[in-house]
Each structure stands twice: as C-alpha cells, then as structure tokens.
Amino acid sequence: MSTTMSTKILCKDAEATALKLRLDTGLRVRLAARSNEYTKSTSGLAPTYLQANLVVLPSRYAADFRGLCARNPVPCPLIAESSSVGNYSSLKSYLPRLSTSSQLAAGLDLRTDCPRYNVYDGSRLSKAGVSAVTDEWTDDHVAFLIGCSHCFESALECAGFTVRHSVQDRTVPIYRTSVPLNPSGIFTGSTYVVSMRPFPKKDIERVREITRAYAPTHGEPLAWGWDALARLGIADIDLPQWGDAPLTEDGQQPLGTLVGDDNNVPVFWGCGVTPQEAIMKAPLEGTILAHAPGHMLVLDCREDDVL
Amino acid sequence: MSTTMSTKILCKDAEATALKLRLDTGLRVRLAARSNEYTKSTSGLAPTYLQANLVVLPSRYAADFRGLCARNPVPCPLIAESSSVGNYSSLKSYLPRLSTSSQLAAGLDLRTDCPRYNVYDGSRLSKAGVSAVTDEWTDDHVAFLIGCSHCFESALECAGFTVRHSVQDRTVPIYRTSVPLNPSGIFTGSTYVVSMRPFPKKDIERVREITRAYAPTHGEPLAWGWDALARLGIADIDLPQWGDAPLTEDGQQPLGTLVGDDNNVPVFWGCGVTPQEAIMKAPLEGTILAHAPGHMLVLDCREDDVL
C-alpha cells in the first residue's frame, strides 16, 4: 500500500469516527440516515438512546402480527406501531411511560430513517441494504417496532459485567430453537430464536435480576446452563444460525471447548430475529420491509424509559 | 332404596337445581358462596358471567408472579390483582375495557366468595376444600385472578360447535407438556399445561378464529393435530394429568383409539393450571391460597367484556 493511499484510509477512518461521535442522539442518527450521510450499522451509535427493530407489513397481516407479539412478548416485544394504516411518521406507543409519538421519535420518517433496509416480496428477499424504502412504502403498510437487546447489554455493562461479544468486537451469537411460538392467525409453526452471552455461574442470578427490569427489550433470560442447549434444541453452541460464533474469554478458542465449565455458562435471551423468522415462515404475499440487520431505527427515548 | 329415601333425594336434587337456577349472576353466586348456601363447582352457574382462577401469594412473590404472567400470557392470562397488598375487597383490573374494581366484582370479599378453597403451606396442601380463608388471609397477601377457558367454550357453543367434554358432562382433559415457560424470578423450570378439545380438521381454522378474540382467557389454540402430541411432549392422549380422559363422539371409546383421524383432531389451548403448577414447583414459603379446582370466583362482568 502506498503512503498516499494509507494516509487517505487513515483520513477516511478519522472522518468516520468523527461522524460517529457526532451522531450522539437518536434524532441526529435518523437525520444522517435520511440524508444518506450515514449508512452503516447503528451498533455503538448514540449511547443510551433506544434502538428498535423495524418490520413493515401489508395491513391485512397487522392484526395477526400484533397477536403474535402479544402472545410471545419475550422474543417479540412490541414497543410501537404506525398510529394508523399507511402512516410512516406517527407511532402508537406500547411503552407505559411514553404515550406520544414525538416522545418516541420526533419528525420521524420510517421510510428513510434506518441507515439501510431490506425489501421482501413475500418471503423472498428482493432488495438487500437499500438506503430508503420511499418507493416501496404504500398507504396500505403498517410498521411495527420491536425492542432489541442493546438496551439490557448497556445495563449489564453499567453494572460492571463483561458482555463478551461486545468487548471482543463480535456480533452476538443467535440460535434457532425447537421451542414453539404461540401461533397467531397466519403466523404458525415458528419457534423461538435466542441470543447467547456467557457468564460465570456465580453471576447468573445478578444478571437475571438486572435484565429482568427491561421487559420491553426481552427482559430476563429464558434459559441458562450447559444443559439448556438440549432443552432449547440447540445442537452446537459453536454453530449459531446468525452472528459470530462465541469464543472463550481470551478469544483463542470456540466456546464449545469449555462445555460444562462453570465460569462460562451460556445464558439465553429472547431475540428480535424471532418475529422476522415467523414472517419469513408464513405464507405472506406482497411487499414486506425491514431494517437491514444491525441497521436499526434509533429513537429519541432512552433505554431506561422502558423500565 | 325405600320410596321415602328416593323421594327425599329427588327433593334434594330439585332444591339443588332450583338453587343453581337462582344463581344467575356473578354477585348472586358470590353471596351464596359467602353464606355457604352454595359450596359446589361453579361449572354451568351464572351463564355469560366471567369466571376466574384465584391465586393468593405472600407479597414478596408478587412481582415475580406478575412477571411470570406478563412473560407467559397465553397459559397465564392475568386479568386482575389486589389493588394493594393485603386488600381482599378491591381489584386492579388488567382488562382494557374494565377499569374499576366494581365493574369486575362489586362488594367483593376474596376470602369467602369462592365456593371452596385450598390452602397450601409452601407447596404442601394443608387444607382441601374449605369454605372460607378468612383466618388464613393476612395483610401481607396479594390475590391474582387468572382467566379461564369457560369463556371461549361458550363462544364456541354459541357458534354451533360441540365442546365434547361439555356435552358428555365430563371435565376437560388437561396435560403437562415439555414446552418451557419463560422463567420469572423465583418461578423457574416450569412448563406449559394445556387443555384439549377435539374438533374435525375442517373446523379448526374457524375454531381458531372464534377463540382468538378471547386473549385474556387463553385466546386461540397453541397447537393442533395428532402430530402436536409429540411437539408438546404429551405421551398418551388417554392419560391426562388432570380432568377426565377424552372419549370418542359416541362416548364409547377412549379418544386414543382414533389416532390420526381427521374427524377427531386434538386441539390444545393454554390452561390456567399452568400458574398453579409453577407455584407448586417454586421453592415458596408461607401460606398460599387458591380456589379449589372447579370452584371459581364468578365476576360481575360478562365473558364478552374480555373481547
């Protein structure tokens, strides 16, 4: 690499870092996403601001999807939806402490305010990672915002716990399970999807306690222990279906080399990929929109507002 | 049997029938239970009035139990709780359409208004079928009312469907499953308990649709089909853990003689025994109170008020 090119890359990195630092509120992230000034993952952006998964469905599926969330609140915590069919700028909140749309996200445009989107034709991905869905949005679409686990991870870090994938700069490992979701209308036959973070056995009760309060963002773990893998129908801890494979604390070995170890006990939470899976498995027709993985909608409210 | 004795029995039956007919509102049932004029099962009493399962816990377990219901709303639909710790006469409603305690049950006394109660010392049954728990109730107790399936059974009957155990004058069969509950605090390691009603395969979508609306009383089925037994971990349809074994339509054979039959497909709903099981499995201490099985609390609101 020539010195000139290397300097250019360094400059670009410095610019990117400066931009990231400037995106310190939900509103700033949304505006930068809207103008395409920012089109990357929202991980680490606007600390303490609540981030949400976005799912947009044709209105004929809205009641069944609302029911799916109501019947499976641990993996599918619904925090808000379009205030009316076709509305991309105003939300109905399900968070008890935040009643108005502007408390959630002022001046919102759900068609542009995620950094990246995926577009599906039924269950077939038709466009990956587009920067806006203005052309795809119709007056028959209904948006749903689902809580995400960034929220309780921050709380764990504040309490002095190490969230391993985070310090190792990896993506949280995510697994399909055999635990059935409670079906709702057209959404049948799906199962829980879970995320995993390892903790020492002695810390698990405290980890449960800290995350319990964050009910709209999955709340406390749904299972823990090496024996939980069998109960959840997870064949191999080293082969997550999404995210990066988990590692030992020193980052040198797969976590599966420590099966049974009390200092590295897998702890499983409900995961927002669950409703996406349920949608992909259902025989839906029409245009479905979602944020691209990791490119979430960042809100104006704070993580502690879900408490 | 002598003619005199037979006449006496007939008179007694006629009296009992007359009493049942007079108990045509929730209030009348509660007052008759309070005075011990009526001490039998509430099945068939006060048609259209909402009946509820009662669980009363020491206050230190209240938050965890509330969380258990919130995280598992299909088998544990919480419809109300004591408006404050120790309160046996006023309820906080979780039904969206009924906000005041008096809309649920005017002049309530939770210590006397079920026809029969069970008393537990921790998880040990210490008194079965007592007519009041006035002496056991303390100012540290919190009562929880959980929805029950009578509600959607009425709706199915109104729509012209046969609820088989009901026309056969038997108790609905209830099964333990291997599907894990989402844990909440001290309530860990429990599984769903489900009730079963057989329907012809062609009717299942309509049965799902009718019961879907009754979200606070378990809502739509959580599984259906002969293959659902394996998914739920139910070993034998003819050996329910509670209630009566299910029969063929003519009442002559166990339902299990028809495995695979499309006219007798098992349909499973979440069951209010689930929270009772979770309580019995948890390492609780102190005095726990509950209605005796079948001897429910009858409310002033109507079944359709949960819609």
From TrEMBL, chains A, B:
One Gene Ontology term of the molecular function aspect: D-glutamate cyclase activity
InterPro entries linked: D-Glu_cyclase, Putative_hydro-lyase
Record bears the keyword Acetylation: no
Keyword Membrane: no
Tree of life domain: Eukaryota
Keywords of the record: Lyase
GO biological process terms, semicolon-separated: glutamate metabolic process
UniProt-listed PANTHER family: D-GLUTAMATE CYCLASE, MITOCHONDRIAL
Family: Belongs to the D-glutamate cyclase family.
Name this polypeptide is given: Duf1445 domain protein
Native source species: Ophiostoma piceae (strain UAMH 11346) (Sap stain fungus)
